[in-house]
Amino acid sequence: VQPEAPSPVAAPLRELPWAQLNFLHTTDVHGWWGGHLQEASYSADWGDYVSFARHLRDKADADGSDLLVVDTGDRVEGNAIYDSSKPRGKFTYEIAKEQHIDLISSGNHELYKAETAEGEYLHTVPDFKGSYLASNLDIYSPKTGKLEPLAPRYKKFTTKNQGIRILAFGFIFDFTGNANNTVVQKVEDTVKEEWFIDAIKDKEIDLIVVFGHVDIRSAEYALLFKTLRSVQWDTPIQFFGGHSHIRDYKIFDGNSVALESGRYMETLGFMSIDGLSTGATKNHGPVAKKAEITFARRYIDNNVYSMHHHSGKDIESFPTEHGLNVSKAIGEARKSLDLTHRYGCAPRDFWVSRRPYPHHESIFTLIEKKMLPQTMSKFNRLHSGGGALVVTNTGAIRFDIFKGAFTKDTKFLVSPFTSGFRYIPDVSYKAARQIIKLLNNEGPIALEMMNQNTILYPPEVHAARYRPHLLSSPETAYAGQAQWQQVLKGDGPETFPGYTTKDDAGTDGDDTIHSQIEFYSVPNCIQSTIGFETEDDRLPETVDLIYNEFIQKWILLALEYTGQKYTSDDTKSWGGGKSFTDIMTDWVEEHWGTKEEKCPT
Ligand SMILES: O=c1ccn([C@@H]2O[C@H](COP(=O)(O)O)[C@@H](O)[C@H]2O)c(=O)[nH]1
């Protein structure tokens, strides 16, 4: 753990369902190598995870079972360790590679920018040679300029102790927002490729593992399941997914399941399978598949209280020398980036989705009503004389603000992306005011976003489209507390708020028994009005339409639906390329800045 991490709180725990083959799974780490330094439940760091995996591997070796470690992408963007270093990612590759990962793939965040994809090619792929798979992802090699698979398409391997013969594929969803140095092949086209058709004919296998940066309830995984089943009618198939930032488990059929393990190093997914056939090993001949295959899952809260318990270690015996060195390297990286530098003190918590929107404790209400108007009314040239509308997407805001110190760390956790603002001057107000509605309604733009597999709101909100139980309704706010989980009462430790996952296997997946936290939906975009009152009779004829450049194509499309044809040539950079990250930080210094040594509690 990092020295400033809060100590985990004792809580009632469920055991790991250890079996013949076991997996540890991370996804959507987004650079949170240092763990959560304001939340005790997720306060373990990548070094602790290195120690934990070592102990579980030793346990597997001792009892003759196997353990495989999987990561399904989006390791970058979302944390100051990645986003504030120059070059971005300076420390990330060195930290990530310290974990022994058996199966690893790319997410969409590895591909948004050309240089990030090159980082994969030059660092992560060679660092995880033999483990990195790219079944539907190519890159124009920075060395030769030629298009080539980012990594091998698939691999077949045999587990160390049991001799389980595994055929593995590593996918990414049908992502369309990648920079032009990579090519993501749609899954529906990949399954028609000769190499894929040949690979899945192999009968000398005991298990197929499909892992990737893909929502486990997506069309892509449904198609892969159907295609595999049409050739391998009863071979067990284990899917690992990601991208939607949630804990989830899907049962495809009696021999096939899928696990998704959350986000931001909050969750270590544990998966186990019993009853698999095996090839011969030095200890035994081939073993036949049992009549019934048993699958089990557990979502481990990423803290050392859970890790000590599940590894059978204590504070003294848990940290390995390797793990300690990794934690030290993370600490040194954090120090060199000066991440504890304080810009101000947040007077209370502001939530991405733990409060309805609008709400005085919603981060979006804070941005819409205060941060953007108070900053932009000062800077904006207000070209049209009548004011401006500013539109930004909610998905650009990645994390909550907690009461207390707002540091360099906080700045990048909340707003890691580099996009600046652009504007179109003199847009008819009648048209401009339609934009927010068009972007947020279930109309033609939502349909087009769906076709392009694009979202503008947080991935957790998107996940709820297929899992409505994830979100509470603002009308019944706080009424549904703990509706799924039996809260334990008795002599043991008390429960406290945290994940209470409901998945295809029920409500007993989380290792830590929590009371429920409510989450609410938020729209695609929010809008601030600058320089005039919408309730006023004297509304402007024209306004400057300012927007986050990341959503430019959707702004132009929405304008087209209002009958106003603009192209990117009509747009201009606003504020000399100042990003929302900068705007927010300046606002925090001005409004929450204090000379006090400590933030008030
Ligand atoms: O530069 C960017 C990149 C992404 N976004 C938004 O992030 C989410 C998607 O996040 P995942 O972690 O890939 O699920 C989505 O809302 C994007 O629109 C962004 O705003 N800016």
Automatic annotation (TrEMBL):
InterPro entries: 5'-Nucleotdase_C_sf (IPR036907), 5_nucleotidase/apyrase (IPR006179), Calcineurin-like_PHP (IPR004843), Metallo-depent_PP-like (IPR029052), Nucleosidase_C (IPR053828), Pesterase_C1039 (IPR014485), YHR202W_N (IPR041823). GO terms for cellular component: cytosol; extracellular region. Keywords: Signal. GO terms for molecular function: hydrolase activity. The keyword Cytoplasm does not apply. PANTHER family: 5'-NUCLEOTIDASE-RELATED, SER_THR PROTEIN PHOSPHATASE FAMILY (AFU_ORTHOLOGUE AFUA_3G04160). This is Metallo-dependent phosphatase-like protein. It comes from Ampelomyces quisqualis.
